[in-house]
Design a protein that fits this description.
Distance between the termini: 27 Å
Order of helices and strands: EEEEEEEEHEEEEE
Shape: elongated
Helix content: under 10%
Radius of gyration: 21 Å
Structural class: mainly beta
Largest sheet: 5 strands, antiparallel
Number of strands: 13
Length: 133
């Protein structure tokens, strides 16, 4: 008898989840939910201006897979006062990460807004991590 490991193959079948009393549920997949938070914040209290959100796009890279997303329809036209946070529809993206494969993962978001004076403002943020180690 041999130990079983996640991703072992038996003909056309592959072991991707198992349950036992000692370890509980073991799976090679992780369902990740990324939640995007938008703030109109400044370093100096009492400074700043409101911003009307116009675009929010980005992508999630899981290994070699690129998953684009857009929340432009959800946020467009929303006005953020100085030092406030977006409180509309939750901005969430769900992805599946295979934990048996070492991979680079990155979430990148690009937001655009316009000031009351007509200045176009853009910002970019990213989160990078390695999974499967």
């Amino acid at each position: 008898s041999q130990n079983l490991f996640l991703k072992d193959r038996f003909g056309a079948s592959q072991l991707v989840v198992f349950v036992n009393d000692l370890q509980g549920v073991q799976t090679c997949d992780f369902n990740a939910t990324y939640t995007i938070l938008l703030e109109n914040s400044f370093n100096t209290v009492g400074s700043g201006s409101s911003a009307t959100l116009t675009k929010l796009n980005g992508n999630i890279e899981v290994g070699n897979q690129i998953i684009p997303f857009s929340f432009t329809d959800e946020i467009s036209g929303t006005v953020l006062s100085p030092n406030t946070t977006y409180v509309g529809t939750p901005l969430k993206v769900d992805v599946n990460i295979d934990l048996t494969v070492v991979s680079n993962n990155q979430v990148t978001t690009i937001v655009s807004a316009i000031s009351p004076s007509g200045f176009i403002c853009n910002d970019i943020d990213s989160l990078n991590f390695v999974s499967g180690l």
